[in-house]
Each structure stands twice: as structure tokens, then as C-alpha cells.
Amino acid sequence: MNTDVEPLLEIKDLEVAFQSSTGMVPAVRKANLTIYPGQSVAIVGESGSGKSTTAHAIINLLPGSGKIVGGSIKFRGEELTTKSRKEMERIRGRHIGLVPQDPMSNLNPVWKIGFQVREALKANNVVKGSQMHQRVNDLLAEAGLPDTERVAKQYPHEFSGGMRQRALIAIGLAARPELLIADEPTSAL
Known about the structure:
Elements: E1 9-20, E2 23-35, H1 51-58, E3 66-75, E4 78-79, H2 85-91, E5 96-99, H3 103-106, H4 113-123, H5 129-142, H6 148-151, H7 161-173, E6 179-182
Parallel strand pairs: 5-6
Antiparallel strand pairs: 1-2, 1-3, 3-4
Helix pairs in contact: 4-5, 4-7, 5-7
């Protein structure tokens, strides 16, 4: 890799732990990872090895009592572990996107798929209202869904697991983030 190019993401000695009744339980220990622009990287490991925890630590969305207890996460040279909640909200979606692991629990069952993609576009202030409809259809098609006009009007329960996964991919791509974190993106495909 060209060392003249600044890393997009650089994780050094990352440590994540979860609070339990007996104290802090380590979940990620001394993780190191460097990703450059245009690179695709896979984290491989057995179940429970900390892959998802590492992904969620990057965007500061650790579940429950999860906490970064050591190390550094830099995105385009900026330290993320010291950013406020508000600052991280500005980074998530627009600069760093996430395709979560479980499509059934990450799509709202009472909202149509098109509405959920629109909400991701609105949240990141990406597209003007007049272009919204076309952009939703484009994203659904880009994620591999057919007949996007029909699909956008359907609810998650009307989709197969693979179709729900593709809808989450469309949402993750909505703001055209510089870094897209995909947590087991092919699990339902």
C-alpha cells in the first residue's frame, strides 16, 4: 500500500469491555487495524471473538454496558474515542455507514422499506425532496432489489431475509459514506 496516503481508519491497541456483576469483562483486546481509501477489509474469527464489538466501537454504538477502555480509533486522522455523542452523530451515516447484522431487528416493522431508506437520506441531509423518490429507488436497485417501485411500498415482513439484508445495505449506502462497515452483510443472502 502507498504509505504516502493517509489511512481512512486506523485502530491501535483497541480494548473494549462490558460491565458485569463481577466487574469489567474484556471483549476486545489490543486490536489493530489500518484501512486505506478504496480498500476492502474483512475481519474473520470465530463466534464471540469481538468482530461485531469492534465494528460497533468504531461508530460508538456499543450495546448495553460496552465501553472502550483503551486504545485509539482514528478516522481520517481524527481521534473518535474522545468525540462527544453529538459529534459522533454527525460522523455516523454521512462519513461512516453501518450495515447491521440482523435485518429483522434492524428494520422497523411498521414502516415501509422506502420510508426507512428516505429517513436515512433525510437524517444525513443528502438529497433534496424533489429527488428523494428517485434516490430511494436507485439505492434499492444498487443493493440488488428488483422492481424498486413495488419494493419501496412493502413492509419488512413481506421480504425474505435476503431482501431485508439488501434493504439494510441500501440504508447503509444512503449517504455515500467514505467508510461502510458491514457486520456479516451476507448472512441472510
